[in-house]
Amino acid sequence: MNSIMDLLNDKTIIVIAHNLDSIKNFDRIIALKNGEIIGQGTFYDLLENNLYFKDLYYSNVKSE
């Protein structure tokens, strides 16, 4: 994944991810629920301040 990220340095990319661990290092994340934006920020900002994102993350971690 690092080599892909090196190629994309200084570029805007759109990623749709179900595995939230794969987006931990992204500069900005926009969280959606039913097509509506429910939060945005860094991974850790969302994890700390957005209950829906936090629930998604921890339910994903438990199922692994």
TrEMBL record:
For this UniProt record, give its keywords in alphabetical order, as a comma-separated list: ATP-binding, Hydrolase, Nucleotide-binding
Q: What InterPro entries does the database record attribute to this sequence?
A: P-loop_NTPase
Q: Which Gene3D superfamilies match?
A: P-loop containing nucleotide triphosphate hydrolases (3.40.50.300)
Q: Report the EC number(s), separated by commas if there are several.
A: 3.6.3.43
Instruction: Give the top-level enzyme category.
Output: hydrolase
SUPFAM superfamilies xrefs: P-loop containing nucleoside triphosphate hydrolases (SSF52540)
Q: Name one GO molecular function term.
A: hydrolase activity
- The name this protein goes by in its record: ABC transporter ATP-binding protein
Origin species = Clostridium neonatale
Upper lineage: Bacteria, Bacillati, Bacillota, Clostridia, Eubacteriales
